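User: Structure please.
Assistant: Input sequence and predicted structure:
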Amino acid sequence: MKASVLFLVTIMLSMKIFAQQKPLSSSTRFDSAIAVLNMGTFHMGFTTDANKTEFDEHNVDNVKQVHAIAKMIAEFKPTVILVEALPENNESLQKAYAEYVKNPAMKFKNPSEIELLAYELGRLSGTKRIYGVDYKQKYNYMVGNTIDFKDTATLNGYMRMLDVIGVQYPEDKMTVLDHLRISNHPQYLDMLMNINADILTHISTEGKWEGAEEAAKFYHRNLVMYSNINQIELDKNDRVFILMGATHTAFFNMWLQRSPKYQPVSVYDYIGYSK
């Protein structure tokens, strides 16, 4: 019997034997698994991201909407809040948060989702610990403009898909809550990973992988951010709330759902579903 055929037979027999085994334990989590609510958001203040949401962070009604959402999520009672800020700035982050807790009427010159949502949520929940877990790494998501690649049909298909989403969910017609409900839908999160990274695997010249190499940088950034999360001291009594730009949320969901250390909690348990 040829080696290749023998190998195939061995694999098939192994699969048959495996299929006859008892199923794995229903528990895929440690007994000490830590509850994590991983929530994606649009950036409510200044951002260098290519895709921005128009949002006046100083508008009184907008702030009221965000604070109402913070009150909903406060029911989760987080003991730790993680935000999209650099770890080396944690001292100033924690100082500003402590000041806000003492004086929630304080004003910020350039508030973002951190000051508007995370701080208010923490104040309402009595959260003592807040950390930044961001990591900066540039990547060229416009690499397709600099090389002559063949698969333009796929790229055009992506663009048409985005146009349809824009028509179905016009940002100027949505409340902040509507926007966050959509931003955390599994299909929307998959789409964000596609258009921010995976799409680049279709952009390359023969024998090269220019787009994939750029996408790998974005994957690397998110892996480092997830590693930053794993360096924070936590125990089974902690309840962790993560607030990030939704593309980071999409990456983190993959790892949190596979990890036995964490027990993901649905955002929709607190902000409800879209009608």
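The chain has one domain: 35-275.
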